[in-house]
């Protein structure tokens, strides 16, 4: 059975969208192919150089476990995260503002 060419087209469109979102998060200038060839996992990001933080860093700021942070995100107790696949990220500026407003 031959795969439907429209399926590949939709997958390609989705891939382009995901790469675009990743570039927004980490300021990367890499192409989608370079990004995919480096690793099958999400690329590691040096959060000190970016405008976003991941669940582990945000959880350490709040002094809670990352799973607790994920639960809080689902309940709306923390700012809304940006979801890239299964990875949650938050804009650093939003987290800083939220913390200044007296969160936790």
Describe what this molecule looks like in 3D:
The protein is mostly helical and 104 residues long. The protein has one domain. It is 54% helix and 11% strand. The chain has five helices and three strands; from the N terminus they run ααβααββα. The protein has a three-stranded antiparallel β-sheet. The relative contact order is 0.12.
Topology readout:
Layout: H1 5-26, H2 32-38, E1 52-54, H3 55-62, H4 66-75, E2 82-84, E3 87-91, H5 92-100
Antiparallel strand pairs: 1-3, 2-3
Summarize the structure.
With 104 residues, the chain is mainly alpha-helical.
Which whole number gives the mean pLDDT? 76
What ranges have pLDDT less than 50 throughout 5 or more consecutive residues?
35-47
Order of helices and strands: HHEHHEEH
Write out the strand line-up for the largest beta sheet, numbering strands in chain order: 1-3-2
**Residues in helix, %:** 40-55%
Secondary-structure content class: mainly alpha
Number of helices: 5
The count of DSSP E runs of length 2 or more, i.e. the number of strands, is 3
Number of domains: 1
Report the β-strand fraction as a percent range. 5-15%
Give the overall silhouette. Answer: elongated
Distance between the termini: 56 Å
Radius of gyration: 16 Å
Biggest sheet layout: 3 strands, antiparallel
Notable characteristics:
104 residues, mainly alpha, three-stranded antiparallel β-sheet, 5 helices, 3 strands, 54% helix, elongated
